Amino acid sequence: MDAKIEFICKLYPAAMECSRQTGCSWELILAQSALETGWGQKVLPGTNNIFNIKADKSWRGERATFNVHEYQRGKKIFVDADFRVYPNLTAALLDRTEFLKKNPRYAKEGLFDFCVKGNMEAEAKALQRAGYATDPNYAKLMVKIFYGPTMRRAIAAAKSKIQSTGDKK
């Protein structure tokens, strides 16, 4: 199986469960993880950090420093930044929701509003407005990934895998 498809198949059940518990879009969870990690190929080594969440001063867990690119004033630059380290991918997925809830800038930009929450495209725009990433095309990229042929194949494979194992998710 293609590595991109495998990556989404591995995340799909947890994304669905996270969506069920929080009301947030499972579609965005998958698209964002694909974008942030190059479909699982560029996870910061040793971190399981599939959303590239930085370790600010409030983070009490393990951290690792990497030289990464950012956009400042429209220019791509490289900076050293601390990132959160997770014991596994499920922990990363669960912490993403907590991270978004604990940072008021996401609520301020409407991420949890009734008409936004659960709507993949509206959530993507709210994340971008709140400054989740510095890429000026962040929301558009996530939407493009979700509706692209690779994600379509990956979701079909994940659903098929669930049906073949008898799981009801």
Overview of this structure, please?
By secondary structure, the chain is mainly alpha-helical. The protein has a domain at 3-41 and 87-165: Lysozyme, CATH 1.10.530. The chain is built from seven helices and two strands, in the order ααββααααα. It has helices at residues 3-22, 26-37, 89-102, 104-108, 120-129, 138-147, 149-165, and strands at residues 63-72, 75-84. A two-stranded antiparallel sheet has the order 1-2. Helix 1 (3-22) runs antiparallel to helix 2 and helix 5 (120-129) packs antiparallel against helix 6 (138-147). The radius of gyration is 16 Å and the shape is globular. The chain starts with a helix and ends with a helix. The mean pLDDT is 92.
Measured between the Cα atoms of the first and last residue, the distance is: 22 Å
Poorly predicted parts: none
Approximate shape: globular
Tally of individual helices: 7
How many β strands by DSSP? Answer: 2
- The residue fraction in helices comes out at 40-55%
H-E order = HHEEHHHHH
User: Which structural class best describes the helix and strand composition?
Assistant: mainly alpha
Report the top-level CATH class of the domain at 3-41 and 87-165.
Mainly Alpha
CATH architecture of the domain at 3-41 and 87-165: Orthogonal Bundle
Largest sheet report: 2 strands, antiparallel
The amount of beta strand, in percent, is 5-15%
CATH fold call of the domain at 3-41 and 87-165: Lysozyme
Q: Average pLDDT value?
A: 92
Radius of gyration: 16 Å
- Strand order, largest beta sheet: 1-2
